[in-house]
Structures are given as C-alpha cells and as structure tokens.
User: Fold these one by one.
Assistant:
Number 1:
Amino acid sequence: MQGHGKGGWRSIVAAPDEKPRVTLSLLKRVLKYATPYRKLMLATLFIILIHTGVTILTPLIMRDLIDRTIPNKDIHRLILLALALLFIPAANGGLNVLQRQLTARIGEGVIYDLRVALYAALQRMSLRFFTNTRVGELMSRLNNDVIGAQNAISNTIVGIITDIIQAVVVLSVMLGLEWRLTLISVAILPLFIIATHQMGNRLRDIARRQMEVNAQMNALMGETLNIGGALLVKLFGRSIFEVDRFRQRAESVRDMGVRRAFMGSIFITLIGLLTAVGTSLVYGLGGYFVILGQFTVGTIVALGAYLGSLYSSLQSLANAPVEFSTSMVSFERVFEVIDLPVDIEEKPEAIDLQDVRGEITFENVTFVYEIGDEYLLSDVRRYGSVDNVTTVLSGPVETDQTEASASHSQARGNALENISFCVEPGQLVALVGPSGAGKTTMTYLIPRLYDPISGTIRLDGIDLKDIRLESLSRQIGMVTQETYLFHDTIRTNLQYARLSATQQEMEEACRVANIHHFINELPDGYSTVVGERGYRLSGGEKQRLALARVILKDPRILVLDEATSNLDSESEQLIQEALKRVMAMRTSIVIAHRLSTILAADQILVVDRGQIVEHGNHEQLLHQRGLYAHLYKTQFRREMTGE
Ligand code: ADP
C-alpha cells in the first residue's frame, strides 16, 4: 500500500541504505541488550586472556628446544618441555570449551531476549499491520535476523576482542624476540589490510544479495505451499507456471551461492599469497641472519609460528568492521519492528469497564484504510511487487460493475464517511447493503481493530479510545465469516474464549449453539483435533463452533457477519435457532444476509458507498422505495419465495 495522496501523510521512508551505517545510538542500544550478560562477558574476556597467554608459549618452547635443550643434550628439560607441549593444547582445549559455552550462553540469551521483545511488539500491532505484511517476512525477522543479531554479539564482538588481544600480545612478543625481523614482516600489513577490506566489502554485498534472493524464494514457497495457495495453483492449473517461477528464484539463489563460494576462495587464495610473502621474508632474511650468525635457528622458527597467528588475527580484524556492520543490519531489522508506532494505542489513563449496558453510538465517523507507511515494515515497500504474479500475469484490469444489487461502483476515497447511529442496549441492528459498501469495516471499528480518522465511537457513552483494550475486547464477541480455529482440540479452541471454562460450561455453550450433538458424535468428542491440519469442519459447523466460543465468552455486545454461503436448510435452521438464543439479552450488530434477521431487527441501517443512506425498520424502509426496497426485491425476497 502506498502513501495516500491527500496531504498530511508522512513521506515514504527511503529504502534503507545499501551500506549499513553503524550509528552510536544503534550501538548503544545493542549494548543495552548485552548488559544483562556483563558478568558472563567479563568471564569470557578473562578466558580469552588466559588462552592467548597459553598459546603464546608454544613457539617459545620450540625455540628453547632448538636453541638450547637439544644442543645442550639436557634430557630433564627435554622431558619437561615435551610434557608442556602436551599440556598446553590440553589446557587450550579446556579453555576453548569453556569459552564456547560462555559465548553460547550470551548469544542464546540475547536471542531469547530479542525474540520475546519482538513477539511482544508484534502482538501489539494492529490488524492493519498484519493485512499489509507477509507472514514469511515476520518469520524471517523472528528467525534469521534474530540469529544474525546473536551472531553479532557472540561471534563478531567476541571475535574482535580476541583478535585485538592476540594481535597485541603476539606482536609484543615478536618485537621482544627480534624487532628488526618483526618490523620487516609487518611491512606488508597495509597491503594485507587493503586486500582484506576490498574483498570483504564485495563478499558482504554478495551475502546481502544472497539473503534477499533467499527471502524472495521463501516468500514464494510461503505463498504457494499453504493450503489456500496450493488450492489456487491446482484450480487454475498453474503448477508448471509456479515451478517456473520457483526455478527462476532458485536459480538466483544458486548463482549467488556459486559467486559467494568463488569470491570466498579467491579471497582465501589472495590472503594465502600475502601470508606467503611474509613467511618467505621472515625465513629468507632470517635464514640469512642465521648464516651470518646474528640470530639463532630457534628464533626464526618461533617468529614463523607467531607470524601465522599474527596474520590470522589481523586478517579477521581487517574484516571486522564489515562483518560488524553487517551483523548490525540484523539488529536494525529487529529494532525496526520493535520501534513501529502502535497504530491502536491505549491511553495510560484508559479505564476498565465493569458493568456494561451495551449502548453503541457512532458520531460522524469517517474512516480510510490507507494511512501513512510509518506503520509498515520497510520491506513491504522495498520488495513491492517487482516480480510478483501481477507483473507476470497482468492484463487490463476490469472492474466488475454488474453486481445485481449495485448499479454503481463502490470504489471511493473513504471506506466510511460520516457515519452516525445509535444502538440501544439489547437492540438488534442489521447492516444491509451492496458488497463493498463498508459493512464489515463498520463492525471492525467497534472492537477497535481500526480507529476512525475522525468522529467518535462510544460504548455506554464512553469514547472507545478511553477504554482499556483488553476490557473492550472482553465486552465484544465477534463472529466473522471466516472462522479461524487453532490446530488443536475442540476443547482447547473453545477454552480460548475463557481459559477457566469447565467441560460442563463448554457443553452448555455448545448446546445453545446447536453443535453439542455433533461434537459428541465425533470419534474423539471434545478432544477431536480441528483446524488447519485436523478434522475439517463444514462451514455451518464451524460457524456454530464459533458461536459456542462466543457464548462461552459471554460478551454484552455481539458483532456478527452472517454466512453468505448457502447452507443446507438443516444447518441453516440450527444456526438461526442458535443465533436467536445468543442475541437475546445482548446488543447485536449483524451484517445481515437473511430475511429472518432483517425482519427481527430493531433497526436496519442501509449502507452504500461508505455512508448510511437509509435507516429504519423493514416496513418504513420498504415504503421509501429506495436502495433497501431494491435490495429486498432482488435479494431477500428471493430467499423468502425459495422457502
Ligand atoms: P462490505 O462488508 O460492505 O462488503 P467492506 O467493509 O468489506 O464492505 O469494504 C469496504 C471497502 O473497503 C471496500 O471498498 C474494500 O475494498 C475496502 N477495504 C476493505 N478492507 C480493506 C483493507 N484491508 N485495505 C484497504 N481497503 C479495504
């Protein structure tokens, strides 16, 4: 969804820079996530220090062996040194295990904190956010980015610290051993750093591209492999087309993988060559000095060994800024979600509703779906629809204006405009109107799934915005056309409405909803698993289960979208009976598709193009000979004569 043209919306945020910028504030924020692990981090640092100290000993022992112990035929010293050569790696191994354990605890801890914060942030998001965000995108933030962030802390930061310590210590020892040769071997460093940096940049770009193409491939899988998508593909016979589309994306993934491997190997080769220059210098020049009798053989051997470890730390350090900033991208992406403004806000002084009468008033309510992009993730804009199905399939878009009930298009700027009405406690209000008129939208505003852009909605005279969200949701029971059930038992699905509900209460609710007998006849009764991969309920059964769930919740206000699909007359009757019982004593707002509901309604609101165009009871409205009379003739009466 793009920014709305009408003034006032904040401009679309520019796509994030290709090169990640590590700002001080970002860094501070990341460090805040690391603070709870201060002690563990200090312990890690301590271990790194010991580890470096122990590692540094081996070349010195070699030197002693070559220069002193062996020439002096000192057996006692030889045994000691040989034992040291055994114990040093053993100690190192132990320290390594300990260090890994600590860094894992820090890293996993950060993952945990970030994940929970992210999930909690997502739970605060409005419906608008979810209708505009692909699930795959969110999963990717919860998984990949959080792991990337963990990597930043447990590998990158720890790695940088280790390398700095190692480089400093090794360099000092080398300078102490033989400063001239050390300076010569360090002379190639600038070359080294430039090469590493350049290659690192390139590798990072490839890695980033690889992440993008991977995300696109995953998005395609997500869209076509869920039940809805798979069904669509089959019904339109698009399997081959989808395989093609997948092939294209998988090709990009493959090509990027190959490029990354290629660049990686070139990088390693280059570094190897540069290291060889250093090594050859040390041994060549060093050997010359040995021949001249200025150094001992042991010194050169030790220097050669140190050189390897020096180069490897410096190589990592040269790469560190790039790696670090790349890891920071993950943090940025996670923070982006956490920072999204909450669209439906709860005032700090919001009140808890106690005894609700159930009076609902709409006062000049106007609403649009499109609002500023600041409520959406950047990727929603970034990926746009570049190679979506539409661009492949796009043809002239024809709008179907031949709908029987509406002779004119429902397309308009505001989804709702200037809606005012009042529902007395206990009344039944029927919303009637052509498809797209805004009926569902009106019902969405009552539990504050969206907020109007102007006007006020009140419950018992209190502005909805002054009511605590949880308390508002407790008062409202909503049965939508599409009933969502978790992949779990019927019992658990029912208990979602009231966690403390007893079996007896559930059975009572199900009796009222006319679904108890059906459930009882299922092989596992209330323990039957339903939902996505469970037992498939029919439309009517699902609706009755949804009704039972709402009955269990026992709200003062019932918002209901009557099923449009044609149910068989038995289901139909069961639902009608159930509804009658549920609506009694409650304020009910029903998007009515059935004549019986309309006839029973205290008020009928006729909605067209986002406005209430007629208002009254059945008799009054028929006399007006307006849209209602037209709808009645074309839709509802048919239902009556059909009976
Ligand atoms: P009805 O329930 O009367 O059929 P709706 O309330 O569902 O109509 O839709 C009213 C208008 O709002 C329609 O023009 C529809 O296209 C638009 N609309 C519905 N949902 C969204 C959404 N999530 N984003 C943007 N526009 C929407």
Note: Residues 1-18, 380-406 have pLDDT under 50 and may be disordered.
Number 2:
Amino acid sequence: MCGIIGYIGARPAGALLFKGLKRLEYRGYDSAGVATLDGGKLEIRKDAGKISELDEKLHFESMAGSMGIAHTRWATHGGVTRENAHPHADCSGAIAIVHNGIIENFQELKAELAAKGHSFKSETDSEVIAHLIEDNYKGDLEKAAFEAAKRLRGSFAVLAVSAKEPGKIVCFKRESPLLVGLGNGEMFAASDATPIVEYTRRVVFLEDGEAAALTKDSAKFYSLDDWKPLEKKASTVEWSAEDAGKNGYSHFMLKEIFEQPQALKAVIAQDEKNLAAFAEELKKAKRVIAVACGTARHSAVIGKHMLDRVAGKDIEVLIASEFEYFADRVEPGTIVLAVSQSGETADVLDGLRRSKAKGARIMSIVNVKGSSIDRLSERSLYLNCGPEIAVASTKAFMAQCAVFYLLAHAMAGKLEKAEGDLRLLSGLVQQELDAANGKMKEIGEELAKKQNAYYLGRGVNYAIALEGALKLKEISYVHAEGMPAGELKHGTLALIEKGTPVFLLNPEDYTYYESLSNGIETRARGAKLFGLSNKENKAYDEWIRLPETIDALLYPFLSIVPLQLIAYYAAVARGNDPDKPRNLAKSVTVK
Ligand code: M6R
C-alpha cells in the first residue's frame, strides 16, 4: 500500500515527482523518496517522515533531470527508516527501483544474491529487486527487468531506471496496481491516476503479468511471460485535477463529507440497461456473497437489509479476508459481489480470483473505473462520486449505500421510486450538513477527552453503529465499538460506567422500541446517551435530530452524517490529521 510514480519528458522531474507524491500520500505516508536521472547521473533523495516535512530538508524540486521515479511508503517489511525508504539502488548505484507490494520469497532471493557478493542496505523485501536486475543486467534494462520479474513471488508494481540507459523507465506488475499515462512528448507511470491527471487523462492500465518500457515519445507494452509486444487500449480518466484538490476545506475528509449531497445525485446517473441486467442477474443467482473490507463491508451489510426488505433477496456478507477460507468451495451459479471504493483492496481481489477459478460470476460495486476489481468483474456498477482522498471513507460509503438502494428497487421493479427518494435524500443530507455542523463539533470535542465510546443499533441501523465506531476510532484513536443493541447484555454492558458515551441509532422505524429499551439500559448504568432519531425522547441525554423521511430505509444515510462529523471534529480536537491517520493507508493493496 505504497504509492509510486515515474516521469519521463521535458519538465523538471524533481518538482513534478514531489507534487505527485503529495497526491499519492494517501496511499502511505511514513517515508518517501525520489530518484532522478540527469544524463548518466542517478541521484536519490529519501528519508522517513511526511512528504512535506521531507521536502523542507531534501528539496526535491532542486533535483536535476527531466526523468525519474518516486515512492511514498507504508511500511510492511522493515521499520520506518531512511534505509528502508525507496527508491532502492543496486550495489553499483546505477540502477534504482520503486516497488509497491510484497515480495514473498525475498529472504531466499536475498540469501542467494548475498552469496554472489551483493550487499544490502535495507531490511526491505523490495531492495532485492534492484539487485536482481543488476545481477541480470547485460546492457539491456528491459531484458534484465524481465529476468528479474521471473524470479519474484508475491505482489508487485515496479518502476526501474538505470544510469547506463538514461531516457527509459521500465515498469512491470503483478497484483499491485499500475497504469501508464500517455502525454505528448512525455510519459508517466503511477499507482493510480491522481498524480498524473493534471498532465494527461489518457491512461493504459497494466494487467497482471504485463510490463511497459517508456521513453519520452513512446510507451511499449509487453507480456511478462515472454516479453512479446502487446497491443493495449488507452482509456480516458473521467475526473479532473480540481476534483482531487481540497477546494478551500481544511481537510479532504471534511470536503468529502460535504460532497455527499452531490454524491447521492451522481449515483442516480447509472447506465440503466446495465443496472437492469445487474439486478436481473442477482435475482436469478442461486447464491450471492458480498465481499468487502472496512467501511465498504458496512455498506454491504446495509445492502443486505435493503435487498431483503425491498426485493426479498437474501444475500450473505463476508469480510473479504475471511472469505478466502471459503472461496475455493464456491460453486457455479454463485455471484461474488465485490464492494470497494478503490477497487484495489488485496483481500477482496484474492477472494475474487479464487472464486472465479471455481466458476463463480464476479460482479462489483466500485468507485474507481478501470481498477483491478472493476477489470476482474463481468459487470460493475459505479459510485460516480469522484476521487476519495481521505483515508476515512465518507462519500464513497454514502454512494455505496445509494447504489444498493437503487439495486434493491430495480430488482423489485421500483427504480423510479428509488431515484426520486435519492433526490429527496440529497436535499435532506444538505439540510443536515447546514444545521448540524456546529453541534457535532461540540460533541466531537467532548468525545476527544474520552477513552471509549459505544455505538448501538438494530437491523439496518446496526451497520451504522459499526460504521460510526470505525470512523471515530480510525481518525481520533478513541476506542470505539459498534454492536447490535440486542447483544449488549451478553457482555459489553459490563463496560458501561458513569459518563461513558453511548450513541443509539434510534430512528422511528421497525427497530425503534427495542433499541430505545437497550439505550435506556445503558443510561441506567450511568452512560451518557446520545440518541440519533427523528423523534425526541426524554431518555436521551442529548438528542441528535435526524430529518423526517419518507422511507425508513433512508434513515441510515441520515444517521451516518452526524457521526462522520463527530469523528472528524474529535480527531481535529486531539491534534490528529484526519486525512492521514497513523498506521493506515487509503488503499490496502497487501494482504
Ligand atoms: O477501497 P476499499 O473500499 O476496498 O477499502 C476498504 C477499506 O480499507 C476501507 O473502507 C477502510 O476501512 C476505510 N479506511 C474506512 O474509513
């Protein structure tokens, strides 16, 4: 879960790569580095720390040359140190590489190369790639990269340059994402389109087992199996550089929370034929298993309730990293439905590949068109919500729930109702954002002083309890647990004491009275009870008012908004950067 970028053209590479790293920082941000080539001279600057802080001491912009590669790291193998930061060089200092992924057989490769006299400077798995290329280098970087790639097991997206062949970047990949950006007299390679979209929107996605060789005027594609040339089609990125900026908000997360009314409208713009075919296939499937991680899984739990209540279709929802223990036993007639913002989550991809091999049909709900999950899927529905940069997912969650809402209604032949509901909902979410922001800031600041918080809900609201708790813990580091309200008495109630914050998801729907009783039980043990409801109740210490709506299944959309804001303001009050929580990365491309 690192970000990589390469550039070859006429612009000053140091400045361009530094800017690109800032755009990719959401993929990992514990260390960073840049290598540029100026004629036959390779220069590497790198260190541990956040990219902007590093630039203050390393001055990436001042690096000479108009080609180079760069990396922002989320540590997997080896601590967060300068030595472990990328780019990594070979023994001679002529070859440099950046890598995203995990080389599973790095220990045996390292021992083999060390026995041949290679000396290693880092504890990383990635450094073996530079030495393997060096070991195979006989005057042709492409050939050497091809030979090196044959020896690698695991996941990788690699960019390699050599001072002996200035004017060329070699790229190759398996499992980790990589695309090539096609410019005029300049070429790019990157983990995703965010760092290059301001220069070009024409991109080619590399598939597993593919490679590319870039010069400033050409991009040639090859199969990693035999280095035979490949014909590849370019796609156009549909969003612009402005979409990937903060637009005056203090953080991406806040901007993305405020983009949710728009996101709801954008979801409606589905390709109707595709949606109808998707709905029909789900209806007919013998078995449907939704697989996802984190927030995306919470949206799938909501989807399960929606499909059940609106279309009478029962689906299973599994955490992707647990699905792998069942994936090899799925049978034809099963649809595995991936839900993912990035479309690159390794645990999801693993289960998809394995169940596809067993004859399952793969369908997905994704945000990033052309992502690995999208490409693996026979049919996809898109969130259409633009790039989501903050690590904490907000607008993508809203959009995922909205896609499920459309889907459930399309399956029941009531698509028009759903479209109308979502338009109405967009206005209600806007009202909430306008009215609730100040109060949620106060609650967030109060929560920042606490150690623990609990989120309770029943039925469809249980998923919001999970999501509210995840938002709080991942960015504020306040421990939070989301659970079914009915489960409380089976253990967790023991943890409630005077002043413990409890958020009760309590809209006036089919769960109202039972949830209310559970909330009252926590209050009787001293909890401070925050009731999220459209209806006031004296049992609440604080009433977080939800707008009235026309369909009970719309309440989850309305209840998550205040919880997102509370988490955001709690993080800010604790002095954390909500966009880049410690130890996490946006796109989890390793298992
Ligand atoms: O890109 P994906 O939707 O597949 O990502 C899944 C999770 O990693 C993601 O939702 C994660 O839980 C977020 N940080 C939550 O805010």
Note: Residues 293-296, 340-342, 345, 348, 391-393, 470, 474, 587-588 surround 5-amino-5-deoxy-1-O-phosphono-D-mannitol (CB under 6 Å).
Number 3:
Amino acid sequence: MKFSYKILLSCIITMAAALGIGGYFFVNNVFETSMEREMEQAADENNILQFAFETAALNIPAKYDLLQNSAVKEIGANLEKRGQGTGRLLRLSDENREILYASEGFVEDTRLLASIEQQTRAYQVIHPDEHYYIQTGAEITALDRTLYLETMRDVTSVYEERARGFLVYRNMMLLILVISSVVMFFISTWLTRPIRLLTKAARKMTDGDYSYRAEQVSTDEMGQLTRDFNHMAGVLEENIHELEAEVQAREDFIAAFSHELKTPLTAVIGYADLLRSRKMDEEKHFLSANYIYTEGKRLEAMSLRLLDIIVTKRGELIPQEMDVEVLFRYLKDMYEEQQKHPFAFRYEPGRIYGEADLLKSVLLNLADNACKASEPGSTIEVFGEKRKEGYLFGVKDEGVGISPEDCRRITEAFYMVDKSRSRSHNGAGLGLALCAEILKLHGSSLEITSTLGEGSTFAFVIPYGTGTEGAGEL
Ligand code: ADP
C-alpha cells in the first residue's frame, strides 16, 4: 500500500474513532441531562398526587372514620381523571401491597412496589411495550391507613430524541469523514511528494543517470533528507567518475604497454628469424645482431622504468634532511664532462626534506629530456631558488618546446610527443611518469612552462628541512 494511502487511512481511522467516541458521549450526556429533568418532574408529579390524595382523603365525609378501599379507588379514579389531559397513570396499593386501584395501561410489574420503603421515593425506568416510562413510588398516609402510590411518566420522547441524536450525529460524522478524507488525500499526497521525488531520483541513478538530483520542495526534515541524499549522490557520482577514470587509465596503460612491447618485439623476432634462416655476410649478420641487441636493451630499459614506477607507487618515502648541494653536485658530476650540451648551474644554498636517490632520479630524467630536446651546443640551465613554499628546482632548455596540449598529457605513462624521436633515444614515455610519481610522494608536482620552438622549463618545489626554512646555509 502506498505511504500516502497509509497516512490517509490512519487519519480517517483516528478521526472516525475520535468523532464516534466524542459523539457518543455528547449525545448520551444530553440524554442523561434530559432524563434527570424527567426524573425530577416524575418526582414532583408523584409528590403532587400524594398531596392531592391525602387532601382528598381528609375530605371524605365524617360518617366514615376509616378510609375504605372503595374510597381509595374513588379518589384514585378522580386523580387519574383530573390528569387525563396529561396522560396521568397511577396505581394505589394497600398496607399489604395489594393493588387497590390501577389506571388502565399501568404495568403489572410490582418490583418497584415491593421495594418502596418508608419516607423514601423509589424509581425505575420501564419499557413495557414500545414506550419508556419512569415509574415512581412512595408511601402515603391517609387517615389511619398507610398506602402506596405509584405513578408512571412517559419518557419515550427522551429516548426517541437520543436515537434521533445518534442518527443525526452519525450522518454528520459520515459527511465530515467524506469531506476530510478528500482534504486529507490532497494533504497526504502533498506531504509525501518529497518521498516520491527521492524515489524517482534513486531510480534514475540506478538506471545510470548519476547526475540526476532530487528536487527539494521543502525546508523541513524531508528537505534535509533530500539535501543529504543529493549530497550523497554527488559524492557517489564523483567516486564513480574517479573509478571510471582509473579503469580507463589502466586500460590505456595496458594498451600503450602492449603497443610499446609489440614494436621492439616484432623487430627482434624478424631479425632473429633472418639470422636463423639465411646465411648472411658478416656485416649484415652484425647489423641484425646489433638490432636485436639495441631493441633488447630498449625493452630492458622500459621494464626497469616500469618497475621503478610500480615500486615508487607502492613504496613509502623515507625522507631525510639534506643539503641541496648533494643533488646539484651529483648532476654536475654527471654532465660537466660531456661536450654535447653546455650545462649552467645557478642555485641558492639550502636544506630540504626528501629522499636523495629519488630526487636525483627526477633531476637526471629532466636533464636527460632537456638534452634530448635540444640541439647540440645549446645551453641547459639547472637552477635552484628559495621560495616561500619550499625550495624550487628547475631545468631549463632552449630545445623544441612542447605544445600546451602535450604539456597536459606529458606525465602520462607511455605518452610521447614525438614517438620516433623518443624511441631513437631508447625512450618509451615513462621518464616523466616516474618523475611525477616520485614528486607525488614528496607532496609536490611538476610545473611545466614551454613555448614551441623556444624551449621548456620543468620545475618542482620540495619542502625545507626542519629549522632551516629559508636559511639556505651550507
Ligand atoms: P621518454 O622516456 O620517452 O623521454 P618522458 O616521459 O621522459 O619519456 O617524456 C615524455 C615526452 O615528453 C617525450 O616524448 C618527449 O618528447 C617529451 N619531452 C620531455 N621533456 C621534454 C623537453 N624538455 N622538451 C621537449 N619535449 C620534452
């Protein structure tokens, strides 16, 4: 059953119960008040008759010193007649509670008569036929006799009034229930609208529409729930996109890896086949073997790089405080002797916090790339500057430069700007990917500024060593 119907049903049940109970007590209260009034009137009537009987008894002619039964009957008949217009019913009984006179239609029931006590007035409501009566009984003393007078007052109209009251109230209750059911239907539909909107959003998301959000239509708890749901949906969407991007990156990586593997392997297999199937002169033999050797070497370099990336990705940094001189000295030793590219070193002294071997590897990769991208003879500058956020290392060349599009993707594994040039240098697009991983471990990243045809600068910032921030003392 729909939630809105449940709300509607529970409201109708509650209202019906409340109206039913309330109505019952209301109508009954009115009835009881009327009955009390009737009781009082019945008592008054009985009292008046008692007085009238006693007066009539006193007026009996003096020859009778006793009140004869016949006189009692006569007085009874007279009293009944006098009250005929009002429908008076009475019964007179003697000392032994034997009935002396009874109006026509007076009940034969003598329970009340038996229960009348001295000085008290007894009542009972009786329902002999279709009518209701209040039967009142009292003891009367006339002359030397003690008699019992009973009267009956017709209260059928009070009972009919109660039945009518119930009927009117029931009809009114039904009308109220019908009207309020219609109103409640709209209210419950309005109240449950946020739930329907949330359900719709949940379904849309299940069907793959992760950007769908539930419309917020209120500011109450339901509105808060919608806000929380939308926030959760946002976080989930982000996570899903991240996972999708990760899966895509892995797929791209595997595709690029297979591709990079295929090219040297095809050459190796081709030349190996040539060597085993044909007799060749010594020079061709050497060239083929050399090709297999260089391609093998390239594969070896690639697998070592990949291994480095995987190890770096999984590894933990074991940083130490060190002097930047250690890193610049290392690069100087590596490049100062070679003739192809003049190296210029310009750096401020300083102390940093990092892992020396990994940082050496980053600088070496950047310096190598700069050499590969530059014409022989063009200067490569290696610099170090103190910045507010840390120590900045940089490698600047005047080489071919990189387009903005390539700049964005250059740190992806196997991404090569110029594939043939990279391959001719034994590259597979893994050097900068390794650098990026190492810098990530240091909480840093590569900043690349480049202009096509003019050269590039690769820079990164490493945090200062403790207590020596910005001091730069050697
Ligand atoms: P590889 O090991 O093949 O050199 P890298 O990841 O180091 O791969 O470099 C990725 C690509 O970026 C290379 O194809 C290279 O052409 C380009 N690149 C790297 N450094 C420079 C630079 N300083 N100037 C121009 N291009 C560069």
Note: Residues 469-474 have pLDDT under 50 and may be disordered.
